[in-house]
User: What shape does this take?
Amino acid sequence: MNDRELAQRVIEEVLSQPEFQPEKVGEFKFLQKILRTIGEILQKIMDFISDLIFEILSRVNLGSLGSKFLKLGPVARVIINVLAILIVGALVFFLVKLVLKIIKSKRFRFKKEDISDELEEFTKTPSEPLRLALEFKRIKEFRLSFRYFFLALLINFNERELIRIQKFKTNRQYFRELSANDSEIAKASEPFFEAFYYIWYGKRDIGMKELLEWERLYYDLSGGVGGR
Assistant: This one.
């Protein structure tokens, strides 16, 4: 087995670890292509490191022991290559772990921002979004409280058959559906729909005073369902 084959084998062994397998990566199958590209890049880095180490050892006065080592020729080169392989193997491991961590973090944040899955779940427990809105209000998490007042309103509209909650629908689609079924309620709730974009998706902070205004609008539009 030559040096290049040995390096490739080490890289493949690192990438074959359970945490780097497709079933662990889940939806991110495109990582397989990324990992292959990383492997090719790191192979070039390994060659560079190996040449650099050999060049440094050749130029630096290492005494009699160092001279004897360099005189080994091909054997010295193999030992240097093994050191380079170990460095690259460690680099592969930590680099890929970092990539996975970043992607999983982004995926978690995206899920937290999205409302479609949550809305669908709330159709089974329609009182839950209002409970969460009041709980977040109590602990002064006003932006989250606003979010759940809005979701509670959509669930209320769904219960009254003014809209139909479906996973693929957007807020704009819900508003158009509401307008078709009750234009008066749609007009009154339009500020809520608009505010959701700049407060939740736009990440704009709000205070207690502003939240109380949205809470009052929620109760007005929902017919007071849920109690205060």
